[in-house]
Amino acid sequence: MYKLVLIRHGESTWNLENRFTGWTDVDLTPTGVAQAKQAGQLLKEAGYDFDIAYTSVLKRAVWTLWYALEEMSRTWLPVRHSWRLNERHYGALQGLNKADMAKQYGDEQVLIWRRSYDTPPPALEATDARCERSDRRYSAYNAEVPLTECLKDTVARVLPFWNETIAPSIKSGQRVLIAAHGNSIRALVKYLDNIADDAIVGVNIPNGIPLVYELDADLKPIKSYYLGDPAAAAAAAAAVAAQGKKA
Ligand SMILES: O=C(O)[C@@H](CO)OP(=O)(O)O
């Protein structure tokens, strides 16, 4: 049996301001830092240890990983960054307020943009100042830098990294920690748990709470659970779901 741990980054400045973030590289808030440290403490107290960590190229996930590893005295672990673990690209919504968009377009439309499997938000123009195509960190992958993504697109770019890098690493016996984002984790959860396209709409990932997967020899889930208080994890996931509502 293998164990895999996934952590969504702690609260970011744009989570706090309730803005669509996507590939925008925003920082953690002090609460986000505390959540990341708490995640490391939880892992340490429960006796977890790791051999390698994977994260995105966005600093809210990178810092979450480092703060958690620092709590575990494991900042020396090898860390592999990949844009394939980035948050889902939010297209032209990046930077806009979720509740304001719900007021303008309705809760229903915002839910579709946030959680539907195959409807992407409106795309960014390639000439838009928010477009990441001129960002040096993506220069080697320019053709693949999206202008928007639905979850299906995110699954399609996360899975090659899972299949070619993370899964072989787990199967080789490495204990793996992944620090990523709400929707890149939803993409992995959808794949691992084989969740139907319409059921993934109801899945929300809370900030900074380690999500443990126990996997069989074929990396099929035996069970999965959040570390710590399950009611607190459920309440935090419900709060994420509510971010796209008018009130
Ligand atoms: O804005 C985003 O990039 C994501 C995660 O913060 O938000 P949502 O939960 O609305 O998909």
Automatic annotation (TrEMBL):
It catalyses: (2R)-2-phosphoglycerate = (2R)-3-phosphoglycerate. Pfam families: His_Phos_1 (PF00300). SUPFAM superfamilies: Phosphoglycerate mutase-like (SSF53254). Its EC number is 5.4.2.11. Substrate binds at residues 8-15, 21-22, 60, 87-90, 98, 114-115, 182-183. Pathway: Carbohydrate degradation; glycolysis; pyruvate from D-glyceraldehyde 3-phosphate: step 3/5. One of its GO terms (molecular function) is phosphoglycerate mutase activity. Belongs to the phosphoglycerate mutase family. BPG-dependent PGAM subfamily. Homodimer. Catalyzes the interconversion of 2-phosphoglycerate and 3-phosphoglycerate. This is 2,3-bisphosphoglycerate-dependent phosphoglycerate mutase. It comes from Roseateles paludis. The lineage of its organism: Bacteria, Pseudomonadati, Pseudomonadota, Betaproteobacteria, Burkholderiales.
